[in-house]
Design brief:
By secondary structure, the chain is α+β, with helices and mostly antiparallel strands. Helix content is about 40%, strand content about 25%. Helix 6 (about 150-155) links the parallel strand 7 and strand 8. The relative contact order is 0.10. Bound molecules: 2'-deoxycytidine-5'-triphosphate (DCP) and calcium ion (CA) (2 copies).
């Protein structure tokens, strides 16, 4: 068996970079995209900040209010999630052209097993090509890590951000990890880092001095074992194509209501989105579920399984309407509602019963 070469691709300041495309003047000024909660429009948090804004200390997860305070000239934009998902889908398609197996792990990152295409000696050429293809296609930059496993590839992609790449060959793994502070090791969150520091361990090389027994005693069998392996650069997990099991959307109503018509309208809008997503991935579904969140935040779900798989928008909407009408007839006041398509499979090209 030849050596494994794994890439991890992560888009640079993804949401904010996508916004810059449409308004290039934002490029040189601090800019952030805010995720605004449906109801409380003033309570947004920063989803993504460009690198100019980061110089002022603006970070993801920070309340937008604080971002404005530390950087008054910042441009804050509302998130357009559906748009980013569409761009993401196109980026993933570009990546899929470069490997047999692609594992998308979030909206802006993926692992690629490229062992069949290249060894470490030529991997840089492939990385440059992938970056070029994404830039030519979408005008977006990304950062890429290459390593003998997912752990090292993932850590490599964040080494030289933005628009950078890092290649860690198998014999370089040990040195790559050794001097890193523990919080840089993948899988070490804030709590674990704090605990390690309490134990006098602040670098990965010091972590390696801890026995497996010690780590599993402190952190439990699974997590402790993983920390032991990760500190040595060991990660045997496979790059695995993930099949989505369901597609769903949930949204607040403008106000709490017991009018079935209003809930239907909202679900129509969400069904359009779910349907588009299914179609874009050539999937069909057999089960439609509607979720209703009541004023006291109780969540209720109603489902219908159809006789055959479908990706027919009218069928999906009609099923959702039935679910709404049945649910609302018992006079529930609904605050949020959602739709989920599950029981998913690749479209076979065969007509469904409804289409005959
Ligand atoms: N995201 C979010 N809320 C967070 C973190 C991220 O909504 N707390 C979204 C917006 C990001 C996207 O996910 O653009 C990807 O997250 P990353 O952590 O990869 O961050 P960025 O891509 O924004 O920046 P970086 O250049 O550091 O990768
Ligand atoms: Ca990113
Ligand atoms: Ca990411």
């Amino acid at each position: 068996m030849g050596e494994r070469v794994i890439l991890h691709v992560d888009m640079d300041y993804f949401f904010a970079q996508v916004e810059e495309l449409e308004n290039p003047s934002l490029k040189d000024t601090p800019t952030a995209v805010c995720m605004v909660s449906d109801r409380l429009s003033s309570m947004g948090t920063v989803a993504s900040a460009n690198y100019v804004a980061r110089k002022y200390g603006v970070k993801s997860g920070m309340p937008c209010f604080n971002a404005k305070k530390i950087c008054p000239q910042i441009t804050l934009l509302p998130a357009r999630k559906r748009h980013y998902e569409q761009v993401s889908g196109r980026v993933m398609e570009i990546l899929a052209c470069h490997c047999k197996i692609l594992e998308q792990v979030s909206v802006d990152e993926a692992y690629l097993n490229v062992s069949e295409k290249t060894g470490f000696d030529n991997v840089e050429k492939l990385i440059v090509q992938i970056k070029k293809d994404i830039f030519d296609g979408e005008r977006l930059t990304c950062s890429i890590g290459a390593g003998p496993n997912k752990l090292i590839a993932k850590m490599g992609s964040s080494e030289k951000k933005p628009d950078g790449h890092t290649i860690v060959k198998p014999h370089e793994v040990e040195e790559f990890l050794a001097s890193k502070p523990v919080e840089k090791l993948f899988g070490v969150g804030e709590k674990t880092a704090a605990k390690l520091k309490e134990m006098g361990v602040d670098t990965v090389s010091k972590m390696r001095a801890l026995s497996r027994e010690r780590l599993t005693t402190v952190f439990g069998e699974a997590r402790g074992g993983r920390l032991y392996d990760f500190s040595r650069g060991i990660d045997d997990s496979a790059v695995r194509e993930r099949q989505k099991e369901q597609y769903g959307r949930l949204k607040s109503l403008r106000k709490t209501t017991n009018d079935a018509g209003e809930v239907r309208l909202l679900l129509d809008e969400l069904t359009d989105e779910v349907h588009q997503k299914l179609k874009s991935e050539s999937m069909s579904c057999r089960t439609i579920s509607a979720t209703f969140i009541l004023d006291d935040l109780t969540t209720m779900t109603r489902s219908k399984t159809l006789p055959t798989h479908t990706s027919d928008l009218a069928v999906m909407k009609e099923t959702a309407h039935k679910l709404v009408d049945e649910f609302m007839s018992s006079n529930n006041a609904v605050r949020r509602a959602g739709i989920t398509a599950s029981n998913i499979r690749k479209e076979t090209g065969q007509k469904s019963l409804f289409e005959f």
